[in-house]
Amino acid sequence: MDKKLVHISKFLSMILRHRPEEAGIVLDKNGWVDVDELIRLCGENLGVNFTKEQLRQMMEENDKPRFSFNEDETKIKANYGHSVPVDLALEPANPPEILYHGTAIRFLDSIQKEGIMRRARNYVHLSADEEAALEVGSRHGKPIVLNVYTGKMARDGFTFFKTNENTWLTEQVPKQYVDFPDTDFFKNAFLENSEI
């Protein structure tokens, strides 16, 4: 994907997931916004210009299905990752026995005490494969991937939603469902590899 499309993707992730008011747009209850209005207001209010064709190309070339058009391509939404309240109208799904959570080593102490919390987002995000989780974790610092016993969670009454082939959502992951590695080993490795 070329740099302009990457910029559009990152910009829309921020606007459609977290700060629609900065562009002057209002998401409907399910997170949808009119495409023409989005294009016009992003240009007028923030000086970020793009076309519907660039949106379409960005969605086709993106390695993850972050956004969706409605059937007639008059509306667009972010598929997951919101911190603003939206109802994504997702149907509960049965997860596999294990999913993965990518995070930074510096967050391990907090996770060991509290479990995996959604923080500012509406859901905790889990990945279907370790590679995707590692990529997520690397965005926040020195990465680590935690195994989450989601099959047991589901049997214990926790609800899961599948947003695409690789991303699962749930409201929280209590610490007893997380397989923690030898954290002293990882912390020491982090300190040894950190630049001073």
Can you characterise this structure?
The structure is a single chain. The chain has 196 residues and is an alpha+beta fold. Helix 1 packs across helix 4. The two termini are 34 Å apart.
The CATH topology assignment of the largest domain is ADP-ribosylation fold
- This entry's quaternary arrangement is single chain
Structural class: alpha+beta
Termini gap: 34 Å
Relative helix content: 25-40%
The figure for the number of domains is 2
Integer-rounded radius of gyration: 18 Å
H/E series: HHEHHEEEHEEHEHEEEEH
CATH class categorisation of the largest domain: Alpha Beta
- Share of β-strand residues: 15-25%
Specify the biggest β-sheet. Answer: 3 strands, antiparallel
Unreliable stretches (pLDDT < 50, length at least 5) are 190-196
Gross morphology: elongated
Mean pLDDT: 89
Number of strands: 11
SS element count, helices? 8
Strand order in the largest sheet: 1-3-2
